[in-house]
Design goal:
alpha/beta; Rossmann fold; 4-stranded antiparallel β-sheet; 10 strands; binds adenosine-5'-triphosphate; binds magnesium ion
Length: about 210
């Protein structure tokens, strides 16, 4: 089943970032996007996850063109189907780690999975304020928050940038387990080629093109 299909996407800000980007994400698939800082990886994820409208091209989610969706449909999809791990964590700062997960669970009408907290080794820090957590703990809480929603597509932008190698692999294991369990798909942006190559497909943003490298 096709979860996401992007066709001929182009985008620019102050200068052109990329042209004619096309790709498809199926259920149980993982796609990594690598490329130099500033090449437009986060911008591409923002386009795929409906947060940004591309200059040209189309994005279909679950078989429907995003540009033809009503505001209500977009809101539902963002709330229920898409899980976005942002490059900077975007947790609610005044709240505890637990409250951050609670908000996600309530909005998505799902429950918090204790086993997930154990696997991410963040059970102990649940009562703490987000601002008291280390960078890596914040990163793991934001991953837990996204998985708590039980999304059908995970968009993860450098989700392991603040983690040691071992913990980064634990997070990747968890993602892959999740994809199998929920028949979900994942688009991962990373600078870590080793982690990228654990994904089924690897693309590289280079010379304003998205090239398939695996
Ligand atoms: N909202 C915006 N307005 C203007 N320019 C932007 C905006 N978002 C990104 N850019 C520019 O687009 C270019 C690509 O940014 P983007 O964040 O997509 O790169 P990236 O590949 O994710 O980089 P990094 O690896 O450092 O995260 C940069 O030059 C950036 O300044
Ligand atoms: Mg980025």
């Amino acid at each position: 089943m096709k979860l996401l299909e992007a066709k001929h996407i182009s985008h620019h800000f102050d200068y052109p970032l990329f042209y004619d980007v096309s790709l498809t994400l199926h259920a149980r698939e993982s796609i990594a996007v690598i490329g130099k800082s500033g090449s437009g990886k986060s911008t591409l994820l923002n386009i795929f996850s409906t947060l940004l409208k591309p200059d040209e091209g189309s994005v279909h989610l679950f078989g429907k063109d995003v540009s033809s969706m009503t505001q209500a449909e977009l809101t539902r999809i963002k709330r229920k189907e898409l899980g976005i791990v942002f490059q900077s964590h975007y947790l609610f700062k005044g709240f505890s780690a637990f409250e951050n997960l609670e908000v996600a669970a309530i909005l998505a009408e799902e429950s918090i999975d204790e086993a997930l907290l154990e696997k991410l080794d963040i059970k102990e820090c649940m009562p703490q304020k987000v601002t008291e957590l280390s960078g890596g703990q914040q990163q793991r809480v934001s991953i837990a928050r996204v998985l708590t929603k039980k999304p059908t597509i995970i968009f993860a932008d450098e989700p392991t940038g603040n983690l040691d190698k071992e913990t980064a692999h634990v997070v990747m294991d968890l993602f892959f387990e999740y994809l199998e369990e929920r028949e979900a798909g994942m688009m991962l942006v990373t600078h870590d080629e080793e982690l990228a190559h654990r994904c089924m497909h690897v693309y590289k943003l280079q010379d304003k093109k998205l090239l398939k490298v695996k």
